[in-house]
Amino acid sequence: MKWVSRILYGLLGVVGIGIGLMKIFGSPGLPDCDDRKTFDTVREAVAKMVTPAAAKGATVAEMQGKVTLDDETEVSYDKTAGVRECTGTVSLAMNGTTLVDKMKIAYTISWVDKKEGRFQSLVRPIR
Asked: What pTM did the predictor assign?
């Protein structure tokens, strides 16, 4: 009878390890509002909003590195649809000039390809 309990405990251990590995290596979760990947896409979108005249020769990549995102807040999350709604405040200052000053934004994070972990962030100013 000891061998039966050992087999059962062994099976429970294997199942527990399997569940743990699935959580670690399973399908990626949709990034949070303050996730680094989300922040990078928001910074790029904000840098692209600046007109060439206002940028004064600065490239999108240069401006992107100067964008700050503060007060990130999750407004809603629909796990079934794979959509997260967020708000925040962005600023962009370069060479002593403020190009974007504490602009309130809303941004949506949604899956493009969940299996591959690809998502998109759509950024829009809040009026």
From this structure: 0.72
